[in-house]
Amino acid sequence: MSSPIAAPEERGPKLVKATPIGLKDAGVTEAWLENEIQKDPSILGLGDLEVKDRQRGQEKAGRLDLLLEDDSGEKRYELELMLGPTDESHLIRTVEYWDVERRMWPGYEHCAVLVAESVTARFLNVISLFSGTVPFVAIQVNGLTVDGNLVLNFVKVLDSRRLRKDEAGEIMQKVVTRQDWVDKASATTVELAEKCIAIINQAASVTRKAGYLRHYIGLNDGVRASNFVTFRPKKEFLNVQFEALSPTEPWLKRLLDSGLAADVKNDFLRVTLTPKGFEDNKGLLTELLQEAVREYEKG
Description:
- The protein is α+β, with helices and mostly antiparallel strands.
- The protein has helices spanning 30-39, 88-104, 121-128, 178-184, 187-203, 249-257, 275-280, 282-298, and strands at residues 19-21, 49-58, 62-70, 75-85, 109-118, 136-146, 149-159, 209-212, 217-220, 229-233, 238-242, 261-265, 268-273.
- The protein contains 8 helices and 13 strands.
- Strand 2 (49-58) and strand 3 (62-70) form a beta hairpin.
- Helix 4 (178-184) packs across helix 5 (187-203) and helix 5 (187-203) crosses helix 8 (282-298).
- The longest helix is centred in the first third of the chain and has 17 residues, at 88-104.
- Residues 163-174 have low confidence and may be disordered.
């Protein structure tokens, strides 16, 4: 009887076993974890952030663990840390810190972030009730040991910003004009946003108009907002954000291969356009803008 033939060994990455471990059992303290996040905020999975303040005093509300800001300088994240499972006090404090900061600094977009070792189903249900009123991100951090080394695994378990908002009536909340944006940015970049909207309307079933809001130029049909694409003009360039595209990776590759500046942040595709970049890549940008229309209208 012949011996069985062993299957040839497949070549590939080496598989290393990871063993779960409680962070306290690994010797981790909240201060240590806060310090590691301060060194590299990108480990949170919220994009390219920088630490603006640590243990920030809040009047009648204690101390905010970390205040983070994104690379646009327009969004801030009020972050509360805790080891172990979530509890009522940390949830309440996180919302309080968010509220204090947004009232004190209304010129920024603010988001409450709770990082905990265990985010239970009960608290996910409670946090989800905030959607539409409090932008809230819950991140679960777990420890793993690999070859004697500690690995931190951050997983976003809830992001209320990704839930579809009922934006009916947002047009009634418009607080700025086109001229305000021209004064803040430039006529050239505002016109660039309007050129993009014209391309959108070539494919849209309902004509979209520019909605000149405080933090961005959005889209509306004269009755309600439909911000599947938003525009943030600067002096020399225009940032365009797509919120209805999936998957984003193929588009990101095409944009980068064309020499355009683009990235993906919070699952949204972002493109930075100059007038020259727009004209040189008008065909690709037309495809992208009109695909965003189709994705939104079918969704």
